[in-house]
Design a protein that fits this description.
single chain; alpha+beta; seven-stranded antiparallel sheet; 43% helix
């Protein structure tokens, strides 16, 4: 079993808040007046809430750790509870982010490169691509 500990990502939080701020500015341009201002404020507050729960991992339902054992996946949430999850077959793996959609429970996990150590992030990317963790061949190779 391999355990990946997630840490808050201020860079992701900043990106979320900035993009929602841009969306709020666009709303003000398209819909001037009190209605546009109310919608712009709602968009900005939505971005702040998303950054707080998703990037800064402050919500009780935020994923704080991922445990992988073969194809099984367990999530440890910030409130201390554990969820056993069934990952979907299709996953997004990029240089800076990994998304793992879950079939059960119905949610998606987003992990950015800044949320864990570089070696752990590389191992998570390999698991997301191939469905297994590296390490079996490394144990047989001489150092």
């Amino acid at each position: 079993m391999t355990r990946f500990i997630l840490v808050p990502s201020p860079l992701l939080a900043l990106a979320i808040v900035l993009l929602h701020g841009v969306a709020a500015g666009c709303m003000l341009l398209v819909l001037p007046g009190i209605a546009g201002a109310a919608l712009a404020l709602a968009l900005f507050l939505l971005g702040a809430a998303a950054a707080w729960s998703r990037a800064m991992l402050r919500s009780p339902a935020s994923v704080r750790a991922i445990e992988i054992s073969g194809e099984s996946l367990a999530l440890e949430l910030r409130d201390g509870s554990r969820i056993f999850a069934a990952p979907a077959e299709r996953r997004y793996v990029g240089r800076f982010a990994v998304t793992v959609p879950l079939r059960q429970p119905r949610r998606t996990i987003l992990v950015t490169a800044g949320m864990m150590a570089a070696d752990d992030f590389r191992r998570l990317r390999i698991w997301a691509l191939w469905g297994r963790l590296p390490g079996a061949a490394a144990a047989r190779l001489p150092a």
